[in-house]
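## tool: complex_structure
## caller: assistant
## args:
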Amino acid sequence: MTTIQRIWRLRSTLLRLRATRCLDCGYVSFPPKAACPKCGSRNVVREELPKEGKVLTYTVLNVPIKGFEDQAPLIVALIKLGDARVLAQLTDVKPEDMEIGMEVVATVRRTAPTLDGVVPYVVKFRPKEAEQRITLTASSTSTNPASSSKTNKASESGQTP
Amino acid sequence: MKSVYIVGVGMTRVGKHTHLSLRDLASEAVLKAIDDAGGEKPQAIVVGNMLSSLVEQENLAALIADHSGLRGISGFKTESACSSGGSALVAGYSLVASGLFDKVLVVGVEKLHERPTPDTTRGLAYAADADYELIYGISFAGLNALVMRYYMDRYGISREEMAWWPVMMHENGYYNPFAQLRKKITLDEVINSPVIADPIRLYDSCPLSDGAAAVMLTSEKFKSINDSPIKISGVGDAVDSPDLSSRFELDRLYASRLSAERAFKMAKKEAKQVDIAEIHDAYSIIAAITLEEIGFAEKGTAPKLWAEGRFRKGDRPVINPSGGLKSRGHPVGATGVYQAAEIAMQLRGDFPGMQVNGDIGLSQNVGGVGSNVITLIYTR
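## result:
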């Protein structure tokens, strides 16, 4: 139950996963900071994080906070993306199939409505393996098996922000 | 800087106090502390509180002072999530140490059982990062669960080892007349309790609590108000990121380590000299990591040590003879002040629950998932 103003203010950070990199000590921080958390330098630049990474740890919420009740069981993970970590929801995966080290890829999905009743879109992550399965299914119905890798790339660029 | 002493303490029982308002709870603790300090009235009041918005009340220093017959004194509120009470102690300490006042009353108060639980848990999640965490629906328990899974995986800690902590806390709290959950529990009950945010189960978590605690702080000049004044000989306070994502390390709590180091340095003491400690076990994982950061256990070993029977009465240090946040309860903004009152009574020798003999005490109050941590060291 956030506000549409918040989603609007954060749109580029949240959807493009823009971190800050310190030009003095190299520390990459997501969320982005006004100054480097490690060395205090203000010499930081925005940098887009990779859209694929690995699950460092996760939780399955039987009781998400108010406003997200409909999404239970809600899977939230900390994901290693390049030199940073990102906290995000997992999607297209069952709680029992979750594991540390799972490779995941970013996708854009609907989330809980804001206080103003708007349905915002945020970045969630889904298993990379699931994407491959979907691609394989698609290629098996295709008349030209050689097009499967192209299909995969097209779907990736279409799904990732 | 002037020396600062605790010369009076007061607490309400922690629990679900439907019949008592926030001002009732706070003034009960305030008046008990004044009585314990020989009836001496404070010149200022500092209030620790996180979520009085749940009872639609702010302006707490005025409300509590006025209700307690202290109209006209100075006062303000401090907030740092679950360590709001610890922050109030730092502020109260500073007012006396600076010489601005000689007698300052610090009171922590929280009233969580007013609104439906979903409103309360959402409010508690305000301690997290609203822009980058809350918008994904994660609860405070969920954030702690992320750290718990990471820690258990990294150090090979079993479910049984983790579960010994709440069992031990409920054993200690059974004897504490101020505790919320005065019942002993078994390992099986912990392991089979309902899952809240996997791997965190009900008994890995503290309860929701109402309660208030107060301590009267004075300078050297007034310490003889009480026959057994307890000196606050070290104060350390540190902040970390409210978000988990940008932490330096996921299995450590940087602010816990820094605040403990600062408090030990100021008190000229070391972890191995501590006889009794009250630590912030809102979730068992926070107990594990803070025990390691304070210096009571090597990295990755705390759950193994407590599963082997360490930290109980007879050991040194004894941790959480009150029952900790698990059994005594966690009236959020009051918890840090409960810890101070409990350690002061332990060192005085008049704690009404599990009494531990000792000369050096420590308390550590944690806000957020270790984003704001206050450590205090107490000596007789």
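## assistant note: Chain B touches chain A through 39 residues (CB under 8 Å). Residues 332-348 of chain B form the longest helix (17 residues). Handing back to user.
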